[in-house]
Amino acid sequence: MSEQEIFQRYEKKYLLEEGQFQLLKKELEGKMTMDQYGKHTICNIYFDTPDYLLIRTSLEKPVYKEKLRLRSYGIPKEEDLVFVELKKKYYGIVYKRRAAMKMSDARAYLYEGKREGKKGQVIKEVNYTLDKYGLEPKVYLSYDRIAMFGNMDPNLRVTFDFNIRGRNTALDLTNGVYGENILGNGQVLMEVKTAGAIPVWMARILGEAGIFTTSFSKYGEFYKQEIIQDVFGDQVQKTAKGGSNCA
């Protein structure tokens, strides 16, 4: 049996340099509070088709896109709870469904196709997505996160992600935290998550600090840096040299 949750919100991303992060952290004091977990590590397995259709489609910035991942907080043991998450984005609004289950059950479900006892609306949607695309584990991504919530509006959340690491081998959450870094030295990925518009006071702080939204996908960045050459290497080289890929 699984515990299920559904979220709907707007998410904006900002790529910060070290100085911008320190300035912003100071500006947010008194307006936002760090959550109870402090700085913690989030680990994910992203599922995709054999030829990476989902992330390739996502990088084209369509009106609608979706992704499926398995998430844990820290390195899980077999009996620890992990989260099967189906994330969709449509016209800028993020819809996230997730179901909690033990690590051993999640592996049996997603890796081995054992669906006995898996019920509920979220599971139905995950099953549909698995069957529609023929998904399999493709990429591991982990990062260290600080999360904050608004003092006046607890639905306002800001997260800061550091040390974003990825790999496309050993694709099991129990295998540990390691991989190739995908951010530059000192860079921090910030996300602002709201039920509506960003508060005026926050927009002012960001504007005065010269911090602007960016299009950034952790999975997409790892794909571009580490996978695309391996999967489409010959085609990429021919195109770069003005080869035959011009019909």
TrEMBL record:
Q: Where does the record place the VTC domain?
A: 8-222
Q: Which Pfam families match?
A: VTC (PF09359)
Q: Which GO terms describe its biological process?
A: polyphosphate biosynthetic process
Instruction: Kindly give the Gene3D superfamilies that the UniProt entry links to this protein.
Output: VTC, catalytic tunnel domain
Q: Which domain of life is it from?
A: Bacteria
What sections of the protein cross the membrane?
Answer: none
InterPro entries, from UniProt?
A: VTC_domain (IPR018966), VTC_sf (IPR042267)
- Name of the protein described by the UniProt record: VTC domain-containing protein
